[in-house]
């Protein structure tokens, strides 16, 4: 077994590998850039080595710097994690030449499967179902348009060296093919240093389902079931689960058999994932093989009980697999939610800054039989940088059945506190309650179809509004009574707290009467209904647990002006609790209108303004490309919302932009 492992990565996956290595009694070495000097993985490792500036191209992607760190620490093995150098055959070759074990597959397998064109040819020869498409390289946009028309729209334009949804575009017509070719090539060149592009048929109503394989260096290969990864945005996975609610045992066996055949065809060893697109009739087509540990590997670990990182280490150390296919059992259900530094209220644009509050839910088993796991690489106070992927954590829930796992995930998301940056917790919580998701009716178009206009939060139902109104009245009742407890005041001179209040949520007003009740309050509505409320809420406590009649919920609470901000299951409302006379006056107050920004193009996210496509005085049409901003390794194209002309351009290409910074102004 190895004595010391260097993790050639950062963040969550570095912490994940360190955890297993320490459990096995193996020392660990972290590497870090300027931006990660105080990162969690640096603190957790036994040693840490600085490898360069913040930009990954000058640190985490620089093979020479990693080799220097290995030499300085005497590490005898390297785990690459995912991303960065994890699927770089040159890196694996360099380690092999130095006599350092690479905890992953052989360089030959990485190279064969890392090129999507080559991998599809190998898959076809191994008897694996493949998607119709043009597997030769495409030279320019016009050739892309011609080939796309021959295959038949819609098509998927993909980077040959791509991964993680980067360098991928769906084209529904010739205009989309032309623009998609340019965007995919630019994004691929920036992300991978390789701008080769190919095109394949886009399968409609597709599910993205992948098979986890594991093989040793002696030809023993098994598959560990499937993962459903259909909940995606811009080809980036957001919610995964294992097993899939769609796959039956016969399809699972057929997909697993083909995945193993492909792995054997390239002499694969270590953990790997074979990804498929599956149509509504359970026909499946090979997409690619990821020759590394997947981001979503925890759901497989939870349903199989197998630590994939441990198996990777043992295989790299020359051990045989300790189990066969007949020993693999799928137990229960697991769901993973990826917590991203992306603001769902701003069309999921990247958000950077400091985590002023970061309190994950408690890990471990719950009384209802569910289990929570949180894989993360940050702590409270950590800085979310524009230089790296926006993922903050991977929250996982396991239960004996699917709905149990979804319910446990919803409760865990309610209990997850993140402040200081924009994040997608409200969106994740909202998905858990969507009927279509709960029923398992998924495709990769789920988000586009269910949220066609983006995410603006969940609108409370009538029942939810009553709960929130009762909760706000309860908080106000407790606060009012706390306020009258002035030290030294005469009892007969204390202010009496009224029982009559008006709770306003949006355009709805609820007259209520409040009184003490057992350990909490009773809130009576004007229709005669009563809700009892008990809680552990205290002023300044941002997360409180409430018992509303028979229901237990966790809600994030804070002051918002004179009201109470309440966040729960994707809802984000401000409730005002006022006396009847004050409520009447508040009703007459004019509403402040937001500033008019219709003639301004503002930068929607922190990032680099990589290109400006128009000049001052130019006429522009609705939908025309105006500028391109790159943030967190993704290219974002900004388009004109309406017809007009450019009055002034404030930004310049290469400029670092802040959120809402002016790029250009229109007449």
From TrEMBL:
It holds the Pfam family PCC_BT. Residues 120-317 form the ATP-grasp domain. It is an enzyme of class 6 (ligase). Residues 1-452 form the Biotin carboxylation domain. Coiled coil: none annotated. It catalyses: propanoyl-CoA + hydrogencarbonate + ATP = (S)-methylmalonyl-CoA + ADP + phosphate + H(+). Keywords: ATP-binding, Biotin, Ligase, Lipid degradation, Lipid metabolism, Magnesium, Manganese, Metal-binding, Nucleotide-binding. Its EC number is 6.4.1.3. Pathway: Metabolic intermediate metabolism; propanoyl-CoA degradation; succinyl-CoA from propanoyl-CoA: step 1/3. Its cofactor is biotin. This is propionyl-CoA carboxylase. It comes from Mesorhizobium shangrilense.
């Amino acid at each position: 077994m190895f004595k010391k492992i260097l993790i050639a990565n950062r963040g969550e996956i570095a912490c994940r590998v360190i955890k297993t290595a320490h459990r096995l009694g193996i020392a660990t070495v972290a590497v870090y850039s300027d931006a990660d000097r105080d990162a969690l993985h640096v603190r957790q490792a036994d040693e840490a080595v600085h490898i360069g500036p913040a930009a990954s191209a000058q640190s985490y992607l620089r093979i020479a710097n990693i080799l220097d760190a290995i030499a300085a620490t005497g590490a005898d093995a390297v785990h690459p994690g995912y991303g960065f150098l994890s699927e770089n055959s040159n890196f694996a070759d360099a380690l092999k030449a130095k006599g350092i074990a690479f905890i992953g597959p052989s360089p030959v397998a990485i190279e064969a499967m890392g090129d999507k064109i080559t991998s599809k040819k190998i898959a076809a020869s191994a008897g694996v179902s493949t998607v119709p498409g043009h597997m030769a390289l495409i030279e320019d946009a016009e050739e892309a348009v011609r080939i796309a028309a021959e295959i038949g729209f819609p098509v998927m334009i993909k980077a040959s060296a791509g991964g993680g949804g980067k360098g991928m575009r769906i084209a529904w017509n010739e205009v989309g093919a032309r623009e998609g070719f340019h965007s995919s090539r630019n994004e691929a060149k920036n992300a991978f240093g390789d701008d080769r592009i190919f095109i394949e048929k886009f399968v409609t109503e597709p599910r993205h389902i992948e098979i986890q394989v594991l093989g040793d260096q002696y030809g023993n290969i098994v598959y560990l079931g499937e993962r459903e990864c259909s909940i995606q945005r811009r080809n980036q996975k957001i919610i995964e689960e294992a097993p899939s609610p769609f796959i039956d045992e016969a399809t699972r066996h057929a997909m697993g058999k083909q995945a193993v055949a492909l792995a054997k065809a390239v002499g694969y060893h270590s953990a790997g994932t074979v990804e498929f697109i599956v149509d509504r009739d359970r026909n499946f087509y090979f997409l690619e093989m990821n020759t590394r540990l997947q981001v979503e590997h925890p759901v497989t670990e939870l349903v199989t009980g197998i630590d994939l990182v441990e198996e990777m280490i043992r295989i790299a150390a020359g051990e045989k697999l300790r189990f066969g296919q007949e020993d693999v059992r799928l137990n229960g259900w697991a769901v993973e939610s990826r917590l991203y530094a992306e603001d769902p209220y701003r069309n999921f644009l990247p958000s950077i800054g400091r985590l002023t509050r970061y309190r994950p839910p408690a890990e471990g088993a719950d009384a209802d039989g569910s289990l929570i796991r949180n894989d993360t690489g940050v702590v409270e106070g950590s800085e979310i940088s524009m230089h790296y992927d926006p993922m903050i954590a991977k929250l996982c829930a396991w239960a004996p059945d699917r709905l149990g796992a979804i319910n446990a995930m919803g409760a865990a998301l309610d209990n997850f506190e993140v402040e200081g940056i924009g994040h997608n917790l409200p969106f994740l919580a909202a998905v858990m309650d969507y009927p279509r998701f709960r029923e398992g009716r998924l495709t990769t178009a789920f988000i586009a179809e269910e949220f066609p206009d983006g995410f603006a939060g969940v609108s409370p139902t009538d029942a939810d509004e009553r709960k929130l109104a009762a909760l706000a009245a309860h908080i106000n009742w407790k606060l009012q009574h706390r306020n009258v407890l002035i030290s030294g005041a005469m009892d007969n001179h204390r202010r009496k707290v009224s029982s009559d209040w008006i709770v306003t949520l949006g355009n709805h007003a609820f007259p209520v009467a409040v009184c003490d009740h057992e350990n909490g309050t009773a809130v009576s509505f004007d229709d005669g209904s009563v809700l009892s409320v008990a809680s552990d809420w205290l002023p300044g406590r941002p997360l409180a647990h409430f018992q509303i009649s028979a229901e237990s919920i966790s809600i994030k609470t804070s002051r918002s002006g004179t009201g109470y901000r309440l966040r729960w299951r994707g809802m984000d409302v401000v409730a005002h609790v006022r006396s009847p006379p004050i409520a009447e006056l508040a009703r007459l107050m004019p509403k402040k209108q937001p500033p008019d920004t219709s003639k301004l193009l503002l930068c929607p996210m922190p990032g680099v303004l990589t290109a400006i496509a128009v000049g001052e005085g130019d006429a522009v049409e609705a939908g025309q490309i105006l500028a391109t901003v790159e943030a967190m390794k993704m290219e974002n194209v900004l388009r004109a919302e309406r017809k007009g002309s450019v009055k002034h351009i404030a930004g310049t290409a290469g400029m670092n932009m802040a959120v809402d910074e002016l790029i250009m102004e229109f007449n």
